[in-house]
Amino acid sequence: MNIYALVKRTFDTEEKISVQNGEIAEDGAEFIINPYDEYAVEEAIRVRDEHGGEVTVLTIGSEEAEKQLRTALAMGADKAVLINTEDDLDELDEFGAATIIAEYLKDKDADLILAGNVAIDGGSGQVGPRVAELLDINYVTTITELKIDGDKATVIRDVEGDSETIEAQMPLLVTAQQGLNDPRYPSLPGIMKAKKKPLEELELDDIDLDEDDVEVKVERVDIFLPPEKQAGRVLEGDLQDQVKELVQLLRTEAKVI
Amino acid sequence: MSKKVIVLGEVRDGALRNVSFEAIAAAKKISGGGEIVGVLIGDSVQDLGQELVQYGADRVVTVEHPHLKHYTSDGFGQAFMAVHEQEEPEAIVFGHTALGKDLSPKIAAKLQSGLVSDVTEIEGEDDDAVFIRPIYSGKAFEKVKINEGTVFVTIRPNNIEPLAQDADRSGDVSAVSATIQNLRSVVKDVVTKATDGVDMSEAKVIVAGGRGVKGPEGFEPLKELADLLGGAIGASRGACDADYCDYSLQIGQTGKVVTPDLYIAAGISGAIQHLAGMSNSKVIVAINKDPEANIFKVADYGIVGDLFEVIPMMIEEIKQLKVNA
Ligand SMILES: Cc1cc2nc3c(=O)[nH]c(=O)nc-3n(C[C@H](O)[C@H](O)[C@H](O)COP(=O)(O)OP(=O)(O)OC[C@H]3O[C@@H](n4cnc5c(N)ncnc54)[C@H](O)[C@@H]3O)c2cc1C
Ligand SMILES: Cc1cc2nc3c(=O)[nH]c(=O)nc-3n(C[C@H](O)[C@H](O)[C@H](O)COP(=O)(O)OP(=O)(O)OC[C@H]3O[C@@H](n4cnc5c(N)ncnc54)[C@H](O)[C@@H]3O)c2cc1C
Questions:
Q1: Where do the coiled-coil regions begin and end (chain B) (predicted)?
Q2: Based on the structure, what is the number of domains in chain A?
Q3: Which of B17, B45, B64, B257 has CA 20 to 30 A from B141's CA?
Q4: DSSP classification of residue A217
Q5: Nearest alpha carbon to residue B56 among B26, B12, B99, B96
Q6: Which helix (H) or strand (E) holds B7?
Q7: At B67, phi and psi to the nearest 5?
Q8: CA-CA distance, A244 to B239, in Å (whole number)?
Q9: What are phi and psi of B292, to 5 degrees?
């Protein structure tokens, strides 16, 4: 089976966010594979181990995203592709990201594409379904279970807490929800092997795209931080009185009950 | 220039979801006085049309088909595109719900348009509309606009105030026929796990438990309090990882992001990943036996104490209040 996993390099979830010159400051921040994409990579490896084939991890980003690709290779992916847009593009929206990925994938005959259901930085959740639509293949989002049998997959999908069992035709793109699996940590031998695995680096030119083809549709006009939350009031006194006071405050001051 | 806007109304258990009314209010801002057309898709939705009108739609079009009983991206995609072809709108608004998140990128790809997902606020109107949306799980916000092509947004439930219902408003409800075929996904089964009724993303009150609840039974008093307040229960990843509850309840950077009017955190330490999912709630109450717990830094009101004492006392107190009211 020809399997692709889409991974995005994102800020570590521990990072505090600050804004500098109208952009999110990246100095000194730690970066990780988007947590949902780890589930995607893990599932890709499991499907390959069961059905045979090859897992390619794909990212759009800068040179720095090589690190996350190597991590995915160390987990067990076979090959990696970095589409480096650093020299070509200053900005990229979801339309552009999906266009690039679909353009790369269009002649690859992928049987299965796995993505995260959402990137914890951009947070749009658009890229997976957009790619599927551009490739004209089936997709199912926020999945927690995947079983493949020939040209059909049985998928369990999390829908705001309910689970739907779906029979889906292959080729298929799925987006991972938490609970799909427990992503493995790269092992030491895995890390050693990853260094020798192929990592191909491409630019827009190489996939016959022009900057104009991916010009942003959505213009970002500002980035700002939410107002700092003031530490509130920790109540004091006898516990019963505290609870009385709390309920009163919620009713009369905060007016939420 | 005023815009014609279409709004996808969402039906759950035979009723319109609140977010659909909020979407109409959002559409009003984007339209700058243009026409607002509600869209309903399903196997039997005609009867709900008037309600969308009462909340501000000028008229409603419906697509009904037996294959639209369950949502699938192919089925709803075909239905929506049939409406789109007929109406040729300049703007589109969906709710940022499971359905809206799944369908909107497909439609945007078909239309080759931009799409602004998960909008929490709209500044300005019509061509000047600027959309505010959280990024980095609410640790920051961005303001964006769409200058060209269809203005397409999904709005986060619970953030944009719906218009008041006006029972005197009436509008046309008409059917559009669509060919619904070649569905590549079929829904075989649906298991409802969500606690009866109140969906977390739309809940005005959330009572969330962490590892401090100590076990699945520990959620019982939280559930009772949530029910009393007409709210939903939620959880930290600590509680989910420990198998005290289902992952679907997880709130945080890798869970749901919620903004209820009242968030009660019980036995939750307040890790940065948890705060990312709830710190924009309007009022936060923390109950934790550790006075140093990080959750107190974002709480409006805190009680240092054992949740198994505090929650039952709260239940009693609120019951009293209701009796007296
Ligand atoms: C006007 C504007 C300017 C922007 N400028 C920049 C910029 O200069 N630099 C920048 O980094 N971002 C920029 N962004 C953000 C960027 O558009 C998004 O990060 C990107 O489109 C992906 O969207 P998302 O983060 O919401 O991912 P989602 O759609 O939430 O991601 C879902 C899944 O898609 C896959 N995926 C997403 N992105 C990638 C990727 N890059 N490679 C491989 N797979 C991926 C992953 O599997 C991921 O889990 C800008 C956005 C706007 C609107
Ligand atoms: C990549 C990544 C993503 C993550 N995403 C999320 C996420 O989306 N959501 C999330 O929540 N976490 C997330 N986490 C985990 C997060 O870092 C914390 O580990 C988690 O939030 C801790 O859960 P907790 O507060 O329930 O548990 P703990 O940190 O163990 O806190 C339990 C609290 O309960 C208190 N307590 C104990 N008994 C009582 C009692 N009887 N009465 C009152 N208080 C009591 C204790 O004082 C303590 O403060 C993520 C972590 C990583 C690495």
A1: none
A2: 1
A3: B17
A4: S
A5: B26
A6: strand B5-8
A7: -75, 0
A8: 28
A9: -90, -5
Residue A204: other Cβ atoms inside 10 A: 20
Instruction: Give me the CATH number covering residue B108.
Output: 3.40.50.620
Kindly state whether residue A254 falls inside one of the protein's structural domains: no
The first and second tokens of residue B225, run together, are 């309090």
Instruction: Give the Cα-Cα-Cα angle A110, A112, A114 (nearest 5 degrees).
Output: 120
Residue pair A256/B262 in contact (Cβ under 8 Å)? The answer is yes
Question: B289 in ligand 2 pocket by Cβ < 6 Å?
Answer: yes
Ligand nearest to the CA of B209: 2
Helices (H) and strands (E) in chain B, counts: 8, 18
What's the pTM value of the predicted model, to 2 decimals?
0.94
Residues B134 and B214 in one domain: no
Residue A80 and residue A104 in contact, taking contact as beta carbons nearer than 8 Å: no
- How does pLDDT run across A97-112, given as a tens digit for each residue? 999 999 999 999 999 9
Q: What is the largest CA-CA distance in chain A?
A: 72
Measured in whole angstroms, the distance separating CA B150 from the mean position of its chain's CA atoms is: 23
Question: Which pair of tokens denotes residue A138?
Answer: 């089936």
Using DSSP, how many helices (H) and how many strands (E) does chain A show?
Answer: 6, 15
What number of CA atoms fall less than 13 Å from residue B87's CA on the CB side? 30
**Identity of residue B221:** P
**d(Cα A23, Cα A223) in Å, to the nearest integer?**
6
Range of the domain at B277: 200-324
> What is the distance between the alpha carbons of residues B212 and B238, in angstroms, rounded to a whole number?
9
| Residue A246, CA distances (Å) to B83, B228, B307 in order | 51, 16, 14
Give the separation between CA B45 and CA B42, rounded to whole angstroms: 6
Degrees to nearest 5, angle at CA A230 with A225 and B211:
90
B183 domain-assigned: no
Closest C-alpha to B50, from B82, B42, B13, B58: B58
Q: Is the link from the previous residue into A171 a cis peptide, with omega within 30 of 0?
A: yes
Q: B241-299 pLDDT, tens per residue?
A: 999 998 889 999 988 889 999 999 999 999 999 999 999 899 999 999 999 999 999 99
Q: What is the ipTM of this complex?
A: 0.95
Q: Confirm whether B25 is domain-assigned.
A: yes
Q: Is the CB of A65 under 6 A from ligand 1?
A: no
Of B158, B175, B192, the domain-final residue: B175
Q: How far apart are CA A129 and CA B74, in angstroms?
A: 11
Distance CA B107, CA B18 (A): 22
Give me the residues of B, 6-65, that contact A with CB < 8 A: none
Q: Which residues of B touch A93 (CB under 8 A)?
A: 114
CA A237 to chain centre: 47
Q: Look at strands B11-12 and B15-16 and give their pairing.
A: antiparallel
Q: And the tokens for B106?
A: 């497909």
